Amino acid sequence: MLRALALMALLLPLSALADRYDEAVGAAFPGFRIMGPSEIGLVKDEMSPKHYAEVKDRPGLITGDFNADGRPDFAALIRHPVKKRDKYSEYYDGHLVACYGLEGGKFDCVAITTERMQVPFQWYLTTVPPGQQTCYGSRTHDTQDPAPRDEQGDDTTLTTRQDAIGYFRTMGNGDIMYVYRTRTRYTLCILSD
Predict the structure, then answer these.
(1) Of 47, 78, 150, 179, which residue is most buried, by most CB within 10 angstroms?
(2) Is 64 helix (H, G, I), strand (E, B) or coil?
């Protein structure tokens, strides 16, 4: 019986073995895939051991309840497989995406940002739990209208009641938190400058 199961697993196409997050990304963004650990340049010495252990296996994928509806959501750094080149560098088209859980285990995915991703990419994702955060600048981020809105230049305290998407640099400052407001609108909070 075990031999038959093992043989069946070998005969299945790889797409049948993909996890549900990869499937949701592929359905919403054909050709794109979630970035793996080898594509994101984590710098272990720049991170606490606990934080490194939390993100090292899938630095391009996080889960949480980002829209506070009680359903599991995920966010991912995704890229297209075709390498492009301009006169300065090689890069891939990519996005930071949020995928919101729907009934029946499906997801509704939206691109929060569009990026030119160089590999190794210098950003990773982490789930920011509910609570107070100090923002060293914040603004409304609308995925349908990229012009900054409601910009706050001074330090502000932001209290969240749901998980937020942490978009952190692998070295140095510039960490960002995206807090859900609507499907296409977020509060962008700069956590470190």
Answers:
(1) 78
(2) strand
Complete DSSP assignment for 171-191:
SSS--EEEEEEETTEEEEEE-
pTM metric for this prediction = 0.86
CA distance 63 to 29: 19
**Token pair in block for residue 102:** 């729907």
Tell the residue number behind the tokens 């490194």, with chain if given: 52
Quick one: tokens of 176? 């960002």
- Buried b / exposed e over 14-28, threshold 16 CB at 10 Å, is eeeeeeebbebbbeb
Per-residue pLDDT of the chain (193 residues; tens, 9 = 90+): 434 433 344 444 434 434 899 999 999 999 999 999 999 999 988 888 888 999 999 999 999 999 999 999 999 999 999 999 999 999 999 999 999 999 999 999 999 999 999 999 999 999 999 999 999 888 888 888 866 566 666 788 999 999 999 999 988 778 999 999 999 999 999 997 5
Of the candidates 159, 162, 156, 160, the one whose C-alpha atom is nearest the C-alpha of residue 190 is 156
**Residue appearing with tokens 């272990």:** 44
